[in-house]
Every structure is written in C-alpha cells, then in structure tokens.
Amino acid sequence: MNAHKRRTIYERLRAENPSPTTELVYSTPFELLVAVILSAQATDVSVNKATRSLFPAASTPAAMRDLGEEGVRAHIRNIGLFNAKAKNLVATCRLLLEHHGGEVPCEREALERLPGVGRKTANVVLNTAFGIPVIAVDTHIFRVANRTRLARGKTPREVEDRLERWTPSEFKRDAHHWLILHGRYVCTARKPACGRCIIADLCEYRHKETG
Question: What is the mean pLDDT of the chain?
Fold first, then answer.
C-alpha cells in the first residue's frame, strides 16, 4: 500500500470520527490502567460492567490495595482470568504506592514493570491517558492492518513498528482508536462488512464482500 492510500484512509476515518476515544469507562489514569489490565481476553462491555462497582469501592491505588485480592475478585468475577487479574491489580497498586507516589507513570518502561502490564497495555495508557502518539496493537488492529495491507506483519510488534513508521504524524494520536473501532464494528473477524466500509475502495483485501 502506498503513502497516498494510507493518508486517504486516515483522512476518511478522521472525517467520520474526528475525536475517537476508548470505549472503556474511566475518569483518571489509574482507572484507565485498571480497566485496560482487566480488558485482556475480555470485552469492554464486561469490563465496564465490573468497574461500575469496582471503582466506587476503590478508585485509588491505596483503596484498591486495601480492598485486597478477595475484595477485588468480588467485583470482577464476570471477567475471564479474574483470579490472576485481581492478584496483578493489588500488586500493581503496591508498586504504584511504593515507587511512583501513587501515580501512574507516563514512561513505557515503568508501566511495563507493573504486574499485568505488557507493551499493548502500556501503549493504551500512554496514548489515552497521556496523549502520547503511540499505537497499541490488539487483535482488531492486527487483523485490520494485515487485511487492508495498511501495515502487514506476522506479529503485533511488527505491525506496531510499521504503523509507527508509515502513519503520518498528524494521525498517530488517534490511529489506535480509529483502527480498533473499525475492526470491532466494520472489519470484523468472521465477515467484514465491506459493503458499508468507508475505505473499501482503498483496502487491498482480496476477498471483499460486496453485499
């Protein structure tokens, strides 16, 4: 895919959704961090359902640490891997209090040292909470980037590196949100809705559905 096509794709996505953001519900960087940790192998809908009760009970690292693993588990049982996630959240809260004054760090290395935080989670927090123009590659973005030929790669890191290299700087802040929403609602895994896709004529997918 050439640079002109890539730019046009982002221009159309921006025109349709000028101010994209995550569908996770949060009010502070800490709440976002918690929600993203919970979202691994879970839907945003299920995470938001859990945090509706979790955040009123514990909206700060100190409160969540004091709630403890059992207390956290009680709020997140509807989410996959809730036992491991409760353990990671409490451990993360301890580290935030011990090493970061109870604040969420805005450096990738520091974020990735927190239990349950990998590169994708760190990138989501950096982008959404702190406005840093990085692109987090989840399963939706990995699929969209490869299927459209926007940025092909065999691993999420390969796709991320190519998106970072080839995405014009003016679009980098919002590219993550545009692509994830496009993958979630239009360019879906089983049957992409090519007939109502605003970038279908630019996409290089070979097996487009026209109906």
Answer: 94
